[in-house]
Amino acid sequence: MKPRICGKSLYHHVFAWGNDRHPIFKSELHYQYYLDFLAIIAEQFDIEVSAYALMQWHVHLFIFDRDNNISIFMKELHGRYAQYYNNIAQRVGHVFGERYNNRIVQSNLYAVWLSRYIHRQAVEAGLVADPKEYYWSSYPAYIGLRQERFLKKDVILEQFTYKGCTKQNMMKQYKNFVLSQKNDPVDWGKTYQRIIGDIEFQNNIIKKIKQGRISIIDKDHTFSLLSTRLSVTKDILLHPHGTFQRSVRHQAILMMRNEYGLSITQIARILEISRFTVMVVVKEK
């Protein structure tokens, strides 16, 4: 399992591919439905969408997760879209092949470069000469060609402001930046870094992880692993009744501690129980 960093008030670069690299979108209606789901579900889970690019085989999102809802947000977004897609195509099976990928991104210059990378996806793929010609990205909204009420552009555009600068000036400067041939300080397509930012930012995130203020655990994936290994449902692990179900949860606690290497605090947060309860089980063993 690839560790996933998540927590409150973090900016994420999220990207996901179709199953076996098959197309995710086969018609304009598919793209539009995904955008509709994105707008509705982002509001539902208090997620701010700052940039996006929907490509035929993959998607890129730049989002701000205020309340550590990224896992449930992505599960709902891609679950809803997959259900719609399968119904329309009269098929069954996975639409998105692998777990979505995410990186934590510093909301300064790095976020600006990330938005440029996202907005140039269609150009780099040879689909258009100018990113404004590709409808299924947020770039046209950034340069004033259309309105998208759910899009939160300020974190990017405000980095192009100066005294007396108007909104039109910011959009023009951003347009020039995206169209320029400047060298990106990050190779977004190849980097394996999970934290993108300056040294101070990276160290601060690592410090919060060690303090337990930011998690590197995907709760949904952890429950999936435990449920498969122990042949029980997530509900039993969270709300056991009777001696047998409690003994199963004890097994889950020991597995997370001894096999997955999770801390007492992490286990307590995943199972929504007190640290004391976890410590009792670990010490009994």
UniProtKB/TrEMBL annotation:
GO MF annotations, alphabetized: DNA binding; transposase activity
InterPro entries: Transposase_17 (IPR002686), Transposase_17_sf (IPR036515)
Occurrences of domain Transposase IS200-like (ranges): 7-121
Biological processes per GO annotation: DNA transposition
Gene3D superfamilies from the UniProt entry: Transposase IS200-like
UniProt-listed SUPFAM superfamilies: Transposase IS200-like
SMART domains referenced in this protein's UniProt entry, alphabetically: Y1_Tnp
A Pfam family it matches: Y1_Tnp
Domain of life: Bacteria
Name of the featured protein: Transposase IS200-like domain-containing protein
Record organism: candidate division WOR-3 bacterium RBG_13_43_14
